[in-house]
Amino acid sequence: MKFIHLTDTHVIGGDRLLYGANPARRLARAVDSIIADHGDAAFVIVTGDMTHWGDADAYAAFAHEIRRLPMSVHLMVGNHDDSAPFTQTFPDAARDTAGFVQFTFNTPHHRAICLDTKMPGTHAGGYCETRLAWLKQQLEQSQEPVLLFMHHPPFAVGIKAMDNIMMQDAEAFHDVIAPHKHRIQHLFFGHVHRAIFGNWRGVSFSCMRGLNHQVALNLNPETTNVPGDLAQPAYGVVLLSEDFVVAHMCEFAATSPRFLLGAPEGEDNTAYQLDMRHEGFTDL
Ligand SMILES: [Fe+2]
């Protein structure tokens, strides 16, 4: 099966620009692309930061686009979300009994556990005792393979300004998942606005780019202001089966040339490769 990992859409209201880009228009393009190219996806999951400022106009613009998707959509909150307008716009958004925006659902071979890592009043993430107890209960309730979804990563990625606002309760979080790590098949997160892949204490993970501004690769530990750029927006296309999780990055708005690597039947392969030119494309 296939699903779409969409994150950090950072929509604002009023058809305005944010850092020189139009997040609502970018979300519209992403939705168009998902419908056209991945309409068979089982679901779309949004790992937080639906809007940039959490205001009603922004949630209205976000909802206007996201509701065009024909498959089910799972909404998670990030540090920019879970304001009153979110609740007003999505009154049926899944929450636990304590009111946190966290929930579970099943795929054919996995149990998806979606965490609310927002802490009020800060961009840093957190996971309090109440939420830890909820997670512990979810993990103990079944023995199925697990996929974890969260906004803030529970570890540093090497970009100082983002590491400062990672999930602050990482050790307590790790203690809860540790007895279940053998069946946690992957951890998906957002927040860092980059494609990052790796392994944290035995758990494989991936982070996907956002749709508006991205975080630039700056590994200088002295850089404490978040480095940004406008790299191509992207969403994740994830293939799942009983024995694999494959995460692709789809740069849905890219305009770089596309072509077949092999010559058409009967043509010389070497000449095909050497003679290829692309209108409007200038190489490095
Ligand atoms: Fe974000």
From TrEMBL:
Keywords: Hydrolase, Iron, Metal-binding. GO terms for molecular function: cyclic-nucleotide phosphodiesterase activity; metal ion binding. InterPro entries: Calcineurin-like_PHP, CNP_phosphodiesterase-III, GpdQ/CpdA-like, Metallo-depent_PP-like. Residues 1-194 form the Calcineurin-like phosphoesterase domain. It holds the Pfam family Metallophos. Coiled coil: none annotated. Belongs to the cyclic nucleotide phosphodiesterase class-III family. This is 3',5'-cyclic-nucleotide phosphodiesterase. It comes from Falsihalocynthiibacter arcticus. The lineage of its organism: Bacteria, Pseudomonadati, Pseudomonadota, Alphaproteobacteria, Rhodobacterales.
